[in-house]
Amino acid sequence: LVRLRARLSRSQNALGKGLLTLLSREHLDEDTWEEVEDTLLTADVGVQPTQELVERLRERVKVLGTRTPGELRGLLREELLTLLVPDFDRTVNTESGLDTPGIVMVVGVNGTGKTTTTGKLARVLVADGKNVVLGAADTFRAAAADQLQTWGERVGARTVRGPEGGDPASIAFDAVKEGIQEGADVVLIDTAGRLHTKTGLMDELGKVKRVVEKHAPLDEVLLVLDATTGQNGLVQARVFAEVVDITGIVLTKLDGTAKGGIVIAVQRELGVPVKLVGLGEGADDLAPFDPEAFVDALLG
Ligand code: GDP
């Protein structure tokens, strides 16, 4: 929590502070409510959730009459939390419940932080005593396999890789096979995310998924989104959700944006929880997403 707060305050807690300042005005006229709306939209909360939030705030502020800063904070906290769906199950599912390893596939557009997230996640799992195999199925980006292998060496996980430009599905297959043979606990598969055509992506990811599922059920499909890309991230999320069944979202680079609202928008868009957040480039900068801590950090 302390770290989340520090990282978010570096990005100015713009959303929470802005809202609190606006709602503290003596007269909440139409212009002010429009500013509230703009603040939420600018922070990437999304149109629908913004409208809902403003409507509920207006109603509750009216009932409240005079407002102390403490009351306003409490009210905003409750309403933001409601939008963040606090009762979502955010456990990253890495246990297969069978005698095969848990299989986690990591998908997303290149550059969002997929490989880094896979490495960080491996670190958490290894620290938890798990035996982890990494599958470098991002054969599109030349350095991706090296990068993943470096993470593997750093955290103590074996990396299965193929030739540059090789077939992602066959590497994923090899990784799962190795995981089974070695009695690994978890296999993490890093994939490529080219968005040039949807059919290309669909073919590739679909194939990886099919090949993996021939050997072991997929326990988790994590979609990695870069929080700094705003609405663009939502467009990506939609495309990926059409191609594979996303079970969880990882929002990276939350340390580099004042637009925390994307958490609300993307959960709403996909109906899937944000499970992890990336708060920096370092190995320890991956945290479980905790809605309460997040709102507290926003509100300062
Ligand atoms: P990929 O192409 O999706 O595999 O992306 P990479 O894992 O190579 O990450 C792209 C860049 O984003 C790298 O420079 C990472 O260090 C950086 N990055 C990844 N996650 C985070 C994060 O949570 N915060 C910050 N600030 N940078 C990140």
From TrEMBL:
<feature type="binding site">
    <location>
        <begin position="252"/>
        <end position="255"/>
    </location>
    <ligand>
        <name>GTP</name>
    </ligand>
</feature>
<dbReference type="GO" id="GO:0003924">
    <property type="term" value="F:GTPase activity"/>
</dbReference>
<dbReference type="GO" id="GO:0005047">
    <property type="term" value="F:signal recognition particle binding"/>
</dbReference>
<comment type="subunit">
    <text>Part of the signal recognition particle protein translocation system, which is composed of SRP and FtsY.</text>
</comment>
<keyword id="KW-0675">Receptor</keyword>
<keyword id="KW-0342">GTP-binding</keyword>
<protein>
    <recommendedName>
        <fullName>Signal recognition particle receptor FtsY</fullName>
        <ecNumber>3.6.5.4</ecNumber>
    </recommendedName>
</protein>
<dbReference type="GO" id="GO:0006614">
    <property type="term" value="P:SRP-dependent cotranslational protein targeting to membrane"/>
</dbReference>
<keyword id="KW-0472">Membrane</keyword>
<feature type="domain" description="SRP54-type proteins GTP-binding">
    <location>
        <begin position="273"/>
        <end position="286"/>
    </location>
</feature>
<keyword id="KW-0963">Cytoplasm</keyword>
<keyword id="KW-0547">Nucleotide-binding</keyword>
<comment type="similarity">
    <text>Belongs to the GTP-binding SRP family. FtsY subfamily.</text>
</comment>
<dbReference type="GO" id="GO:0005886">
    <property type="term" value="C:plasma membrane"/>
</dbReference>
<feature type="binding site">
    <location>
        <begin position="190"/>
        <end position="194"/>
    </location>
    <ligand>
        <name>GTP</name>
    </ligand>
</feature>
<feature type="binding site">
    <location>
        <begin position="108"/>
        <end position="115"/>
    </location>
    <ligand>
        <name>GTP</name>
    </ligand>
</feature>
<keyword id="KW-0378">Hydrolase</keyword>
<dbReference type="GO" id="GO:0005737">
    <property type="term" value="C:cytoplasm"/>
</dbReference>
<keyword id="KW-1003">Cell membrane</keyword>
<dbReference type="GO" id="GO:0005525">
    <property type="term" value="F:GTP binding"/>
</dbReference>
<comment type="function">
    <text>Involved in targeting and insertion of nascent membrane proteins into the cytoplasmic membrane. Acts as a receptor for the complex formed by the signal recognition particle (SRP) and the ribosome-nascent chain (RNC).</text>
</comment>
